[in-house]
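Notebook p. 47: complex prediction with 4'-deoxy-4'-aminopyridoxal-5'-phosphate.
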Amino acid sequence: MSRFLSAELAGLVPYTPGEQPQSGAGEPAYIKLNTNENPYPPSPAVRRLMQDLADKPAGQLRLYSDPEAREPRREIAAFYGLQPENVYVGNGSDEVLALAFLAFGKGRQVAFPDVTYAFYSVYAALYGLKTRIVPLDADFNIQPTDYLQPERPEMVVLANPNAITGKNLPLTVLEQILQAHPNDMVLIDEAYVDFGGESAAALLPQYENLLIVQTLSKSRSLAGARVGLALGRPEVIADLNTIKFSFNPYNVNRISLALAAAAVHDKEYFAECRQKIMAAREFTAQGLSDLGFEVLPSLANFVLARHGKVAGSLLYRELKERGILVRWFDEPRIRDFVRITIGTHEEMQRLLVAVSEILQEVA
Ligand code: PMP
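Predicted complex, structure tokens below:
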């Protein structure tokens, strides 16, 4: 730390992303099951577009990108049966979340579970927001009643399915929480919704305090392009734009805007990939249970699993030795678990073989 860093930020503990080995830079090529990326490439339409983008207006890098992100907003709105005014596009959903915390969290407290996406507490710390951190129950469920009687104004932030656990809340429960917070924003982070959950987008006509955040990083295989989005009432989207135009108007580059539109347009490929991942998830969950693991029921593209006889950290290290990267969190409630991203069926077969070898050696 330099002596110039603002004193208010001196204690900030930043988010730690999962390992991103750079193959070709002398690092081994791993089966990468640690950051919930999609094992399949983006839509063939994205690949074709990338190939000829240099000749298209969208590829003209001498020009700034569209600060209103009209092309992807049109496609996203059409996908959800909404209007473009209901859609905001950002540089990954991390950026959308960052702007939303600023726009709707300042002056309030922010409530979210103790086991969830670790970035929520980082944004709160970055902006100096008060937090109400609500423990999940012993089975890692969100208890809706914890969010129904706010004692002071609070923005509620829930990942649904929840990050790290993969557990999902039905829309009826989200409605209760929305109704309990008529004067506060309820942010539903749907990063993993496309793997079996149900989007709250259908609730937008009834709830002006609903903000949905999604990403093209997972179900549309565009993690490297950095495109996230928000769905909300036009006034709410306008608020996000006020913050964005006060911060970084050209927040998404031209190429990513074009690729995002193409990816969302290709519904067939999207459906095919998510089906394959959901099938591989069930295969993996069953395989791990057969090996004696407790596997939390997941509607995301990952599973959280623990084995009574092997510590999470050991499993993580042993798998890495065998060329498979998973995620282990050194956090009190989930230290025994590993989080395993769902890859292709073949990758998951290799994972299960490696896990059973490790169990034979160490259990
Ligand atoms: N929300 C949740 C719950 C996530 O797990 C992630 C991925 N780390 C994100 C948001 C951010 O994804 P991205 O910035 O790639 O859109």
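Notes: The chain has a mean pLDDT of 96. The radius of gyration is 21 Å.
Next step: compare against the earlier run before touching the bench.
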